[in-house]
Amino acid sequence: MALLQLIDTVPVPFRSAPISQEEGAALFRATLALFSRWGVTDEQAAVLTDMPVRTYRRWKAEGPGRMSRDGMARLSNLMGIHKALRIIFQEPQRGYDWVKASNAAFEGDSALQVMLGGELTDIMRVRRYLDAERGGW
């Protein structure tokens, strides 16, 4: 007979903990792999990460330097987009291709074109759209 364990169901108060530099470095490495799958150029990647192309290329070759809170928010949202696409599409390649496909939801622009607006809110717009499509928040 299996024994049941009591589970503490009292909600823990929310505490906003910033992403550590080590976690940010891991996000950056994951984002590099994602950019490769999406077929993003270094120039486009620099816009998405909001850094000069030279800095992006140096970080790509040597590892990231100290990241700002905004930079880590960008990387986090890009990973959220990747996660949503993996949930929506059974075949990963369809999700990778979706990023560059024309989309009526973005007035015919692709998600990548929207994100290349350069603002964090442009990336967040794509993420919110995908989260709504997959039934998340």
Automatic annotation (TrEMBL):
Residues annotated as domain Antitoxin Xre/MbcA/ParS-like toxin-binding: 84-136
InterPro entries named among the record's database cross-references: Xre-like_HTH (IPR046847), Xre/MbcA/ParS-like_toxin-bd (IPR024467)
Pfam families cross-referenced by the UniProt entry: Xre-like-HTH, Xre_MbcA_ParS_C
Occurrences of domain Antitoxin Xre-like helix-turn-helix (ranges): 18-80
The organism's place on the tree of life at top rank: Bacteria
One MF term in the entry's GO annotations: DNA binding
Protein name: DUF2384 domain-containing protein
Species this chain originates from: Sphingobium yanoikuyae
UniProt lineage: Bacteria, Pseudomonadati, Pseudomonadota, Alphaproteobacteria, Sphingomonadales
